[in-house]
Protein backbone atom coordinates (compact mmCIF):
# COMPACT_ATOMS: atom_id res chain seq x y z
CA UNK A 1 0.00 0.00 0.00
CA UNK A 2 1.39 3.45 -0.84
CA UNK A 3 1.79 5.76 2.15
CA UNK A 4 0.10 9.17 1.90
CA UNK A 5 2.20 12.14 2.98
CA UNK A 6 1.61 15.86 3.26
CA UNK A 7 4.34 18.50 3.16
CA UNK A 8 4.16 21.91 4.79
CA UNK A 9 5.91 24.62 6.77
CA UNK A 10 5.41 24.87 10.54
CA UNK A 11 2.10 26.48 11.44
CA UNK A 12 2.04 26.60 15.24
CA UNK A 13 4.08 26.10 18.40
CA UNK A 14 2.96 22.46 18.81
CA UNK A 15 4.46 21.68 15.39
CA UNK A 16 7.67 23.47 16.35
CA UNK A 17 7.89 21.33 19.50
CA UNK A 18 7.11 18.20 17.53
CA UNK A 19 9.86 18.95 15.02
CA UNK A 20 12.20 19.57 17.97
CA UNK A 21 11.43 16.04 19.21
CA UNK A 22 12.01 14.54 15.74
CA UNK A 23 15.28 16.43 15.25
CA UNK A 24 16.60 15.51 18.72
CA UNK A 25 15.74 11.86 18.19
CA UNK A 26 17.47 11.83 14.77
CA UNK A 27 20.58 13.87 15.63
CA UNK A 28 20.83 13.95 19.43
CA UNK A 29 21.29 17.18 21.39
CA UNK A 30 19.40 18.71 24.29
CA UNK A 31 16.20 20.82 24.22
CA UNK A 32 18.39 23.94 24.61
CA UNK A 33 20.50 22.89 21.58
CA UNK A 34 17.25 22.67 19.58
CA UNK A 35 16.14 26.12 20.85
CA UNK A 36 19.49 27.56 19.73
CA UNK A 37 19.23 25.91 16.29
CA UNK A 38 15.61 26.98 15.84
CA UNK A 39 16.45 30.61 16.61
CA UNK A 40 19.54 30.51 14.40
CA UNK A 41 17.68 29.16 11.36
CA UNK A 42 14.25 30.72 11.99
CA UNK A 43 11.03 28.67 12.33
CA UNK A 44 9.85 29.84 8.89
CA UNK A 45 12.75 27.94 7.28
CA UNK A 46 11.76 24.49 8.51
CA UNK A 47 9.50 22.04 6.67
CA UNK A 48 7.73 18.93 7.91
CA UNK A 49 6.21 15.83 6.41
CA UNK A 50 3.06 14.32 7.93
CA UNK A 51 1.77 10.80 7.64
CA UNK A 52 -1.94 11.25 8.30
CA UNK A 53 -2.11 13.79 11.13
CA UNK A 54 1.28 12.93 12.57
CA UNK A 55 4.50 14.78 11.70
CA UNK A 56 7.16 12.14 11.08
CA UNK A 57 9.97 14.02 9.30
CA UNK A 58 11.50 17.43 8.82
CA UNK A 59 14.32 19.50 7.40
CA UNK A 60 15.74 23.03 7.37
CA UNK A 61 16.22 25.28 4.34
CA UNK A 62 18.98 27.86 4.71
CA UNK A 63 18.72 30.68 2.17
CA UNK A 64 22.23 31.73 1.14
CA UNK A 65 24.41 31.97 -1.94
CA UNK A 66 27.44 30.32 -3.47
CA UNK A 67 30.21 31.86 -5.57
CA UNK A 68 30.73 30.34 -9.01
CA UNK A 69 32.89 31.97 -11.67
CA UNK A 70 33.11 35.18 -9.63
CA UNK A 71 29.33 35.64 -9.20
CA UNK A 72 26.98 34.81 -6.34
CA UNK A 73 24.31 32.26 -7.26
CA UNK A 74 21.37 32.14 -4.80
CA UNK A 75 21.48 28.73 -3.12
CA UNK A 76 19.22 26.85 -0.67
CA UNK A 77 21.28 24.88 1.84
CA UNK A 78 19.44 21.80 3.11
CA UNK A 79 20.16 20.61 6.65
CA UNK A 80 18.78 18.45 9.45
CA UNK A 81 16.94 16.00 7.17
CA UNK A 82 15.43 13.58 9.68
CA UNK A 83 12.74 10.87 9.64
CA UNK A 84 11.49 9.14 12.81
CA UNK A 85 12.93 5.61 12.93
CA UNK A 86 9.52 3.91 12.86
CA UNK A 87 8.66 5.73 9.60
CA UNK A 88 11.93 4.99 7.77
CA UNK A 89 12.43 2.80 4.72
CA UNK A 90 9.14 3.78 3.05
CA UNK A 91 10.23 6.73 0.96
CA UNK A 92 9.45 9.50 3.49
CA UNK A 93 12.79 11.27 3.11
CA UNK A 94 12.56 11.07 -0.68
CA UNK A 95 9.04 12.53 -0.55
CA UNK A 96 10.17 15.34 1.77
CA UNK A 97 13.07 16.24 -0.52
CA UNK A 98 11.02 16.02 -3.73
CA UNK A 99 8.52 18.46 -2.25
CA UNK A 100 11.31 20.76 -1.08
CA UNK A 101 12.93 20.82 -4.52
CA UNK A 102 9.59 21.62 -6.18
CA UNK A 103 9.00 24.42 -3.68
CA UNK A 104 12.49 25.85 -4.32
CA UNK A 105 11.81 25.71 -8.05
CA UNK A 106 8.54 27.62 -7.61
CA UNK A 107 10.53 30.26 -5.67
CA UNK A 108 13.06 30.53 -8.54
CA UNK A 109 16.01 29.35 -6.45
CA UNK A 110 18.58 28.12 -9.00
CA UNK A 111 20.63 25.66 -6.93
CA UNK A 112 20.65 23.74 -3.65
CA UNK A 113 23.53 22.19 -1.68
CA UNK A 114 23.85 19.82 1.26
CA UNK A 115 26.22 17.58 3.19
CA UNK A 116 24.97 14.00 2.77
CA UNK A 117 24.92 11.29 5.43
CA UNK A 118 24.15 8.94 2.53
CA UNK A 119 24.47 9.67 -1.18
CA UNK A 120 21.87 7.07 -2.20
CA UNK A 121 18.93 9.14 -1.00
CA UNK A 122 20.10 12.47 -2.39
CA UNK A 123 21.10 11.05 -5.76
CA UNK A 124 17.56 9.74 -6.18
CA UNK A 125 16.29 13.33 -6.08
CA UNK A 126 18.96 14.78 -8.38
CA UNK A 127 21.87 15.87 -6.16
CA UNK A 128 25.44 14.93 -7.13
CA UNK A 129 28.95 15.54 -5.79
CA UNK A 130 29.78 19.23 -6.09
CA UNK A 131 32.87 20.10 -4.08
CA UNK A 132 34.83 19.40 -0.94
CA UNK A 133 35.47 20.52 2.59
CA UNK A 134 38.82 19.32 3.90
CA UNK A 135 39.99 19.19 7.49
CA UNK A 136 43.69 20.05 7.71
CA UNK A 137 46.29 19.55 10.43
CA UNK A 138 49.75 21.14 10.68
CA UNK A 139 52.41 20.64 13.39
CA UNK A 140 53.22 24.13 14.71
CA UNK A 141 56.96 23.42 14.99
CA UNK A 142 57.19 22.60 11.29
CA UNK A 143 56.10 26.06 10.04
CA UNK A 144 59.50 27.75 10.46
CA UNK A 145 58.65 31.11 8.86
CA UNK A 146 60.02 34.39 10.25
CA UNK A 147 58.24 37.20 8.42
CA UNK A 148 57.09 39.75 10.99
CA UNK A 149 57.06 43.09 9.18
CA UNK A 150 53.25 43.27 8.74
CA UNK A 151 51.49 44.18 12.02
CA UNK A 152 48.82 41.96 13.60
CA UNK A 153 45.99 43.76 15.47
CA UNK A 154 43.77 41.99 17.97
CA UNK A 155 40.17 43.07 17.32
CA UNK A 156 36.77 42.44 18.91
CA UNK A 157 34.06 40.34 17.32
CA UNK A 158 31.17 42.79 17.46
CA UNK A 159 31.77 44.42 14.06
CA UNK A 160 31.43 41.50 11.68
CA UNK A 161 31.54 43.78 8.60
CA UNK A 162 35.38 43.95 8.84
CA UNK A 163 35.55 40.18 8.45
CA UNK A 164 32.73 40.00 5.91
CA UNK A 165 34.46 42.47 3.64
CA UNK A 166 37.73 40.50 3.59
CA UNK A 167 35.96 37.14 3.42
CA UNK A 168 33.93 38.22 0.37
CA UNK A 169 37.07 39.32 -1.48
CA UNK A 170 38.55 35.88 -0.92
CA UNK A 171 35.33 33.93 -1.54
CA UNK A 172 34.56 35.51 -4.89
CA UNK A 173 37.60 33.91 -6.52
CA UNK A 174 36.90 30.46 -5.08
CA UNK A 175 34.24 28.29 -6.74
CA UNK A 176 31.80 26.93 -4.18
CA UNK A 177 32.58 29.32 -1.31
CA UNK A 178 29.45 30.47 0.49
CA UNK A 179 27.92 33.91 0.34
CA UNK A 180 27.40 33.48 4.06
CA UNK A 181 24.06 34.14 5.71
CA UNK A 182 23.90 35.63 9.18
CA UNK A 183 23.45 32.17 10.79
CA UNK A 184 26.86 31.00 9.54
CA UNK A 185 28.57 34.19 10.74
CA UNK A 186 26.92 33.81 14.14
CA UNK A 187 28.28 30.28 14.48
CA UNK A 188 31.79 31.54 13.68
CA UNK A 189 31.75 34.58 15.94
CA UNK A 190 29.70 33.48 18.95
CA UNK A 191 31.65 31.69 21.68
CA UNK A 192 30.40 28.24 22.73
CA UNK A 193 30.34 27.57 26.48
CA UNK A 194 33.37 29.09 28.18
CA UNK A 195 35.63 29.34 25.15
CA UNK A 196 37.63 32.47 24.31
CA UNK A 197 37.71 33.50 20.66
CA UNK A 198 40.73 35.45 19.36
CA UNK A 199 40.49 37.59 16.23
CA UNK A 200 43.34 39.46 14.51
CA UNK A 201 43.61 41.65 11.43
CA UNK A 202 46.75 41.25 9.35
CA UNK A 203 48.40 44.43 7.98
CA UNK A 204 47.30 48.01 8.56
CA UNK A 205 44.14 48.48 10.59
CA UNK A 206 42.58 50.68 7.90
CA UNK A 207 43.31 48.40 4.98
CA UNK A 208 43.94 44.89 6.33
CA UNK A 209 45.03 42.12 3.96
CA UNK A 210 43.56 39.28 5.95
CA UNK A 211 42.23 38.06 9.27
CA UNK A 212 42.21 35.04 11.52
CA UNK A 213 39.57 33.97 14.05
CA UNK A 214 40.61 31.07 16.28
CA UNK A 215 40.32 29.31 19.60
CA UNK A 216 43.08 27.61 21.59
CA UNK A 217 41.99 24.11 22.45
CA UNK A 218 43.90 23.30 25.64
CA UNK A 219 41.68 20.39 26.72
CA UNK A 220 43.17 18.06 24.15
CA UNK A 221 46.21 15.97 25.07
CA UNK A 222 48.10 17.90 22.42
CA UNK A 223 47.14 21.57 22.64
CA UNK A 224 45.95 22.97 19.33
CA UNK A 225 44.84 26.15 17.63
CA UNK A 226 41.54 25.61 15.85
CA UNK A 227 41.11 28.19 13.13
CA UNK A 228 37.44 29.00 13.02
CA UNK A 229 37.78 31.26 10.01
CA UNK A 230 40.42 33.11 8.04
CA UNK A 231 40.96 35.06 4.86
CA UNK A 232 44.31 35.84 3.24
CA UNK A 233 44.30 38.23 0.31
CA UNK A 234 47.98 38.08 -0.60
CA UNK A 235 51.24 36.29 0.00
CA UNK A 236 52.56 38.83 2.56
CA UNK A 237 49.48 38.28 4.71
CA UNK A 238 49.94 34.51 4.37
CA UNK A 239 53.61 34.64 5.40
CA UNK A 240 52.77 36.87 8.36
CA UNK A 241 50.02 34.52 9.47
CA UNK A 242 52.17 31.38 9.22
CA UNK A 243 54.79 33.20 11.33
CA UNK A 244 52.15 34.27 13.88
CA UNK A 245 50.98 30.67 14.18
CA UNK A 246 54.57 29.44 14.41
CA UNK A 247 55.15 31.88 17.30
CA UNK A 248 52.73 29.71 19.33
CA UNK A 249 54.98 26.66 19.03
CA UNK A 250 56.31 26.58 22.62
CA UNK A 251 52.81 25.71 23.89
CA UNK A 252 50.64 24.76 20.91
CA UNK A 253 51.42 21.49 19.16
CA UNK A 254 49.18 21.70 16.11
CA UNK A 255 47.04 23.95 13.93
CA UNK A 256 43.69 22.79 12.46
CA UNK A 257 41.50 24.38 9.82
CA UNK A 258 38.79 23.57 7.29
CA UNK A 259 39.24 24.49 3.65
CA UNK A 260 40.07 23.47 0.10
CA UNK A 261 41.68 20.24 -1.09
CA UNK A 262 44.62 22.27 -2.45
CA UNK A 263 45.76 25.24 -0.37
CA UNK A 264 48.32 27.32 -2.31
CA UNK A 265 49.57 28.97 0.90
CA UNK A 266 50.91 25.62 2.15
CA UNK A 267 53.57 25.97 -0.59
CA UNK A 268 55.15 28.65 1.60
CA UNK A 269 55.96 25.99 4.20
CA UNK A 270 59.38 24.32 3.96
CA UNK A 271 58.08 20.73 4.00
CA UNK A 272 54.81 18.90 3.22
CA UNK A 273 53.78 18.84 6.86
CA UNK A 274 50.25 20.23 6.37
CA UNK A 275 48.01 17.18 5.91
CA UNK A 276 44.38 16.61 5.02
CA UNK A 277 43.03 14.36 7.75
CA UNK A 278 39.43 14.22 6.51
CA UNK A 279 37.58 15.11 3.32
CA UNK A 280 33.81 15.58 3.11
CA UNK A 281 32.17 16.03 -0.28
CA UNK A 282 29.07 18.21 -0.45
CA UNK A 283 26.39 17.66 -3.06
CA UNK A 284 24.64 20.10 -5.37
CA UNK A 285 21.27 20.03 -7.15
CA UNK A 286 20.48 22.20 -10.14
CA UNK A 287 16.94 23.32 -9.32
CA UNK A 288 16.45 25.58 -12.34
CA UNK A 289 18.71 24.89 -15.35
CA UNK A 290 18.21 28.23 -17.15
CA UNK A 291 18.62 30.35 -14.04
CA UNK A 292 21.59 28.41 -12.71
CA UNK A 293 23.49 28.62 -16.00
CA UNK A 294 22.73 32.30 -16.53
CA UNK A 295 23.59 33.45 -13.00
CA UNK A 296 27.05 31.92 -12.58
CA UNK A 297 30.13 33.65 -14.02
CA UNK A 298 32.39 32.33 -16.80
CA UNK A 299 35.98 32.93 -17.99
CA UNK A 300 36.22 36.60 -19.02
CA UNK A 301 37.96 36.28 -22.38
CA UNK A 302 35.83 33.42 -23.64
CA UNK A 303 33.24 33.71 -26.46
CA UNK A 304 31.53 30.31 -26.80
CA UNK A 305 28.26 28.47 -27.28
CA UNK A 306 27.20 25.13 -25.80
CA UNK A 307 24.09 23.22 -26.89
CA UNK A 308 22.83 21.20 -23.94
CA UNK A 309 20.15 18.52 -23.85
CA UNK A 310 19.19 17.99 -20.21
CA UNK A 311 17.05 15.31 -18.54
CA UNK A 312 15.45 15.65 -15.10
CA UNK A 313 12.82 13.23 -13.69
CA UNK A 314 11.45 15.71 -11.20
CA UNK A 315 11.26 19.23 -12.67
CA UNK A 316 9.60 19.17 -16.09
CA UNK A 317 10.91 22.54 -17.30
CA UNK A 318 14.52 21.42 -16.73
CA UNK A 319 14.12 18.92 -19.56
CA UNK A 320 15.04 19.60 -23.16
CA UNK A 321 17.45 21.64 -25.20
CA UNK A 322 19.17 24.78 -23.90
CA UNK A 323 21.65 26.97 -25.70
CA UNK A 324 24.23 28.60 -23.38
CA UNK A 325 26.00 31.58 -24.94
CA UNK A 326 29.02 32.81 -23.04
CA UNK A 327 30.41 36.27 -23.64
CA UNK A 328 32.40 38.74 -21.49
CA UNK A 329 32.13 36.53 -18.42
CA UNK A 330 28.34 36.22 -18.57
CA UNK A 331 26.04 33.41 -19.72
CA UNK A 332 22.79 33.77 -21.61
CA UNK A 333 20.44 30.83 -21.90
CA UNK A 334 17.74 30.26 -24.51
CA UNK A 335 15.52 27.26 -25.23
CA UNK A 336 16.33 25.06 -28.23
CA UNK A 337 19.56 24.56 -30.14
CA UNK A 338 21.34 21.44 -31.42
CA UNK A 339 21.32 19.55 -28.12
CA UNK A 340 24.63 17.81 -28.90
CA UNK A 341 25.75 17.90 -25.23
CA UNK A 342 23.47 15.33 -23.52
CA UNK A 343 23.62 15.31 -19.77
CA UNK A 344 21.33 14.44 -16.86
CA UNK A 345 20.55 16.78 -14.01
CA UNK A 346 22.93 15.05 -11.56
CA UNK A 347 25.97 15.12 -13.82
CA UNK A 348 25.19 18.73 -14.69
CA UNK A 349 25.68 19.55 -10.99
CA UNK A 350 29.26 18.16 -10.97
CA UNK A 351 29.99 20.00 -14.22
CA UNK A 352 28.43 23.27 -13.04
CA UNK A 353 30.64 23.53 -9.95
CA UNK A 354 33.79 22.45 -11.91
CA UNK A 355 34.09 19.46 -9.56
CA UNK A 356 34.44 17.10 -12.53
CA UNK A 357 35.65 18.08 -15.99
CA UNK A 358 33.57 17.26 -19.09
CA UNK A 359 36.23 14.70 -20.01
CA UNK A 360 35.91 12.98 -16.63
CA UNK A 361 32.10 12.90 -16.91
CA UNK A 362 32.41 11.57 -20.45
CA UNK A 363 34.75 8.80 -19.34
CA UNK A 364 32.13 7.74 -16.77
CA UNK A 365 29.49 7.58 -19.52
CA UNK A 366 27.57 10.39 -17.79
CA UNK A 367 27.77 12.63 -20.82
CA UNK A 368 27.13 12.02 -24.51
CA UNK A 369 28.61 14.58 -26.84
CA UNK A 370 30.87 15.38 -29.77
CA UNK A 371 34.63 16.05 -29.41
CA UNK A 372 33.99 19.70 -30.42
CA UNK A 373 31.30 20.28 -27.76
CA UNK A 374 33.48 18.49 -25.19
CA UNK A 375 36.33 20.93 -25.91
CA UNK A 376 34.02 23.96 -25.64
CA UNK A 377 32.48 22.75 -22.36
CA UNK A 378 36.00 22.25 -20.97
CA UNK A 379 36.75 25.93 -21.56
CA UNK A 380 33.37 27.16 -20.26
CA UNK A 381 33.50 25.21 -16.99
CA UNK A 382 37.24 25.53 -16.39
CA UNK A 383 38.08 26.77 -12.93
CA UNK A 384 39.71 25.83 -9.66
CA UNK A 385 38.34 22.82 -7.79
CA UNK A 386 35.26 23.90 -5.80
CA UNK A 387 35.29 23.93 -2.01
CA UNK A 388 33.79 25.57 1.01
CA UNK A 389 34.99 25.96 4.57
CA UNK A 390 31.53 25.98 6.19
CA UNK A 391 29.55 22.98 7.34
CA UNK A 392 25.78 23.34 7.67
C1 LIG B 1 18.67 9.09 6.29
C2 LIG B 1 17.16 9.14 6.55
C3 LIG B 1 16.71 10.60 6.43
C4 LIG B 1 16.47 8.29 5.47
O1 LIG B 1 15.06 8.36 5.66
P1 LIG B 1 14.04 7.27 4.99
O2 LIG B 1 12.68 7.84 5.03
O3 LIG B 1 14.27 5.94 5.58
O4 LIG B 1 14.58 7.25 3.51
P2 LIG B 1 13.76 6.76 2.22
O5 LIG B 1 12.89 5.61 2.63
O6 LIG B 1 13.08 7.92 1.58
O7 LIG B 1 14.94 6.25 1.31
C5 LIG B 1 15.16 6.67 -0.01
C6 LIG B 1 16.29 5.85 -0.56
O8 LIG B 1 17.50 6.11 0.17
C7 LIG B 1 18.03 4.90 0.69
N1 LIG B 1 18.55 5.13 2.05
C8 LIG B 1 17.88 5.66 3.08
N2 LIG B 1 18.69 5.72 4.16
C9 LIG B 1 19.89 5.21 3.77
C10 LIG B 1 21.13 5.00 4.43
N3 LIG B 1 21.32 5.34 5.70
N4 LIG B 1 22.15 4.46 3.73
C11 LIG B 1 21.99 4.13 2.43
N5 LIG B 1 20.82 4.31 1.76
C12 LIG B 1 19.80 4.84 2.42
C13 LIG B 1 16.86 3.95 0.75
O9 LIG B 1 17.27 2.60 0.67
C14 LIG B 1 16.06 4.36 -0.47
O10 LIG B 1 16.59 3.77 -1.63
P3 LIG B 1 15.81 2.52 -2.35
O11 LIG B 1 14.48 3.10 -2.75
O12 LIG B 1 16.71 2.21 -3.50
O13 LIG B 1 15.72 1.47 -1.33
C15 LIG B 1 16.79 8.55 7.94
O14 LIG B 1 17.39 7.28 8.05
C16 LIG B 1 17.24 9.41 9.11
O15 LIG B 1 16.51 10.30 9.51
N6 LIG B 1 18.44 9.12 9.67
C17 LIG B 1 18.94 9.84 10.83
C18 LIG B 1 19.33 11.27 10.48
C19 LIG B 1 20.19 11.39 9.23
O16 LIG B 1 21.19 10.70 9.09
N7 LIG B 1 19.80 12.29 8.33
C20 LIG B 1 20.50 12.56 7.10
C21 LIG B 1 21.30 13.78 7.26
S1 LIG B 1 22.12 14.24 5.76
Topology:
Elements: E1 5-9, H1 13-27, H2 31-41, E2 46-51, E3 54-68, E4 71-83, H3 92-106, E5 111-114, H4 119-124, E6 128-139, E7 152-154, H5 160-171, E8 178-179, H6 182-189, E9 198-202, E10 210-217, E11 224-232, H7 235-246, E12 254-259, E13 275-286, H8 289-295, E14 304-311, E15 320-327, E16 330-335, E17 341-344, H9 345-352, H10 358-363, E18 367-369, H11 371-380
Parallel strand pairs: 4-5, 11-12, 14-17
Antiparallel strand pairs: 1-2, 2-3, 3-4, 3-8, 5-13, 6-12, 6-13, 7-9, 9-10, 10-11, 14-15, 15-16, 17-18
Helix pairs in contact: 1-2
The chain binds coenzyme A.
Plain-language structure description:
By secondary structure, the protein is α+β, with helices and mostly antiparallel strands. It folds into 3 domains: 5-126, Aminopeptidase (3-Layer(aba) Sandwich); 134-281, Aminopeptidase, CATH 3.40.630; 288-380, 2-Layer Sandwich (Nonspecific Lipid-transfer Protein, Chain A). Helices cover 28% and strands 33% of the residues. The protein has 11 helices and 18 strands. The chain has helices at 13-27, 31-41, 92-106, 119-124, 160-171, 182-189, 235-246, 289-295, 345-352, 358-363, 371-380, and strands at residues 5-9, 46-51, 54-68, 71-83, 111-114, 128-139, 152-154, 178-179, 198-202, 210-217, 224-232, 254-259, 275-286, 304-311, 320-327, 330-335, 341-344, 367-369. The strands form 2 sheets. Strands 1, 2, 3, 4, 5, 6, 7, 8, 9, 10, 11, 12 and 13 form a 13-stranded mixed sheet that branches. Strands 16-15-14-17-18 form a 5-stranded mixed sheet. The longest helix is centred in the first third of the chain and has 15 residues, at 13-27. Coenzyme A (COA) binds at residues 26, 81-83, 88-94, 116-118, 120-121, 124.
